[in-house]
Amino acid sequence: MLPKVVVYNSVSVDGAIKDFDVDIALHYEVAGAIGAQAMLAGSDTAKSGIEIFMKTVPAEQPSDFVKPVIKEDNNRPYWAIADSRAKLRGLLHVYRQSGYGKDVIILVSSTTPKGYLEYLKERNYDYIVAGSDHVDYRAALEELNTRYGISTIVTDTGGVLASVLLEQGLVNEIQLFVAPQIVGKKAVSLFRSLNQPLKLRLTRTKKVKGHALLVYEVR
Ligand SMILES: NC(=O)c1ccc[n+]([C@@H]2O[C@H](COP(=O)([O-])OP(=O)(O)OC[C@H]3O[C@@H](n4cnc5c(N)ncnc54)[C@H](OP(=O)(O)O)[C@@H]3O)[C@@H](O)[C@H]2O)c1
Questions:
Q1: Looking at the DSSP assignment, which residues form a beta bridge with residue 178?
Q2: What pLDDT was estimated at residue 75?
């Protein structure tokens, strides 16, 4: 079964995904209310997250090679991170250490460098091989459902991956968390790489601490 996929983003009033002040705690609080069992991040988002929030990458510790024990009362989502190009080699322990997710599951393809798969195996990261170039998301999402019982997944990406998911007909819902700010000329728009127009249905709106949450069903 395919999980329900919710594209969730903080955006400015002019639809930008960066270059404005994101209230990151509030962003994840609202994301948490979606109740997803996994957060799907693109490799560029995962890498930029480390660059934005950490001055230096901490050295790996022996404990980073050990799969965390997941207690029964751990209701945090998994991180599912797409990384067919091995961009996160040497960095994944930052996500494992963060404690925000149960653990990290990496999505790769059959052309992902073998050395990266060795890196993942040595550190006991689960990974899913799907697709022959980039990740085949339909297959990967099915596998996340089968192997981990994930029935709802929320994206944590900057739009490129969200557009791929939309084009492949895999998105059920879009949630935009609109911050009361305008970026202006240099705005990088969320769906800048989407090749086709889409019609949506507004299903819910909510005011949250000066922000607007807009929920759309994808038709
Ligand atoms: N405002 C927000 O809510 C928010 C949230 C997250 C991030 N951000 C910002 O967004 C920026 C990064 O976002 P981004 O959109 O550039 O990157 P992204 O969403 O991380 O997308 C890159 C991912 O898309 C995959 N991909 C690219 N082309 C593909 C294709 N043709 N088929 C399948 N998969 C494909 C890549 O997969 P491979 O691994 O296979 O190459 C990669 O994992 C950063 O500046 C970050 O700070 C904003």
A1: 11, 212
A2: 86
CA 162 – ligand 1 centroid, Å:
8
What's the 41 CA to ligand 1 centre distance in angstroms?
A: 7
Domain 38-150, second-level architecture? 3-Layer(aba) Sandwich (3.40)
Domain ranges of the chain: 1-37+151-219, 38-150
Quick one: fold of 1-37+151-219? Answer: Dihydrofolate Reductase, subunit A (3.40.430)
Angle at 43 (CA atoms; ends 17, 94), nearest 5 degrees: 100
Give the pLDDT means over successive 10-residue stretches in the chain (219 positions): 97 96 94 96 93 86 91 90 97 90 95 98 97 97 97 94 96 98 97 94 98 96
Strand 78-82 vs strand 200-208: parallel, antiparallel, or unpaired? unpaired
Q: Cβ(160) to ligand 1 under 6 A?
A: yes
Q: Whose CA is nearest to atom 14 of ligand 1?
A: 158
